[in-house]
Each structure stands twice: as C-alpha cells, then as structure tokens.
Amino acid sequence: MANFTRIEVTTSMYKTGIVPVFYHPDPEVCKALLKACYDGGVRVFEFTNRADMAHEVFAEINKYALAELPGMMLGVGSIIDAPTTALYLQIGANFIVSPIVDSEMARICNKRKVAWSPGCGSVTEISLAHELGAEVVKVFPGGSVGGPSFVKGVRGPLPWASIMPTGGVEPTEENLSTWFKAGVHCVGLGSQLFTKDVIQNGNYSALESSVRKSIQFVENFR
C-alpha cells in the first residue's frame, strides 16, 4: 500500500519542482541513483516499468527507500493498463504515471486515493484527466507536443491545470527557466539527468550535484 497520500505527493512534486525518471534492471544501481537524488533534495522519484520483472526491482528499491530514505515518495511510470496499476499499488507505489489517459487506471488509483498522472497531448485530454480525478497531468513527450508554449497556451483556458512535462526537459538553468515561466507544476527528468557518465562510471556525486542545482534553479524561478 502507498505510504503517502496523493495530496502529499502532489505537494512534494511542486515543492522540489523536479521528478527524476529512471529504470535499470539492477536494484543496486537503482538504490545508488535513488540515494544520490535524495541527497540532492529530491523527494519524488518515478521508477519506469520498462522490462519484464520490473516490478520485482521496484519492490526491492521501495523497501530500501522506506528503510533508508525517509520522506522519499517512490512511484511508477510507463503504466498503460489497469492490471499493472493494481500490481504496483499492491507492492507500495505512491503514485502512478502513464503515457495515456485510461479510465480504468483512474478508478483503481482513486479507490485507494493514490496519485495518478496520465499522459495528455491536448486540452481535451487534460480536461478529461481532471474529470477522472488527476491532480497533476503529464504532457508527453513534452518537447514534441509543443514545449513551454503548449503549457502556456493550455493554462489560458485551464489556469487550474497542474502540468508535468516529461521528454525534452534538460537540467539546465536556461531550459528549466522556459518551462517554469510557462507555468508548469513540475518537470520529469530522464536521460538528460541520468547521463552515460553517471550510469557507466558510477559518478553519483555528479548526479547529486546536478539534482541540487536543478532544484535551486526552480526555487529561483518561483
């Protein structure tokens, strides 16, 4: 079961401004990266469901987070159906992120009061996601859908929309500035944050530094 409410997750997403997005089949690598992000200030982390038995990796790192990283809210992304949603909720996912809008996924999350962030690419999809109970909607792929100008445009007719773009976001002052000035709730950071140097060479100190700088950038923009 989830250890954090959807309101706690949503609030923490806004507070730090960044949500690292990552998958690796080795739980020990995931733990090291999770710890570096935590030490850098992250409190919401999205583990992506990208391979067979990924749920077993998640179960192990979630136990680690609960024991060693107080306040870390670990969730799961790349979920596209209701059965997989239920599986991850059973092993403790604190939120579910999807590249699509699916009403069955929404119902399962809502029954347990777990945060659900569906992927949207239009004002119509965002409005539907709100109707289905989403607090924060995911714009994916953020850069291809329309970038910061899309977010700014959406928030004209839907100023209450809380948007998290993923894809096309970089952990630099210039790039983050454009997104947050457009009005995003937070951003998802994947391969631009978890570089080959970090993964292949175990340069976790560089990851921690990048995370800390990104969070500071966000604070400056707000």
From TrEMBL:
Q: Which domain of life is it from?
A: Bacteria
Fetch the CDD domains from UniProt.
KDPG_aldolase
Q: Which UniProt keywords apply?
A: Carbohydrate metabolism, Lyase
Q: Which InterPro entries match?
A: Aldlse_KDPG_KHG, Aldolase_TIM
Write one Pfam family the protein is assigned to: Aldolase
Q: Which terms in the Gene Ontology molecular function aspect does this entry carry?
A: lyase activity
Q: Which residues form a coiled coil?
A: none
Q: Does the keyword rRNA processing apply?
A: no
- Functional pathway: Carbohydrate acid metabolism
What does the record note on quaternary structure?
Homotrimer.
Give the family, as the similarity comment puts it. Answer: Belongs to the KHG/KDPG aldolase family.
Kindly provide the name given to this protein in its UniProt entry.
Answer: Keto-deoxy-phosphogluconate aldolase
Record organism: Roseivirga ehrenbergii (strain DSM 102268 / JCM 13514 / KCTC 12282 / NCIMB 14502 / KMM 6017)
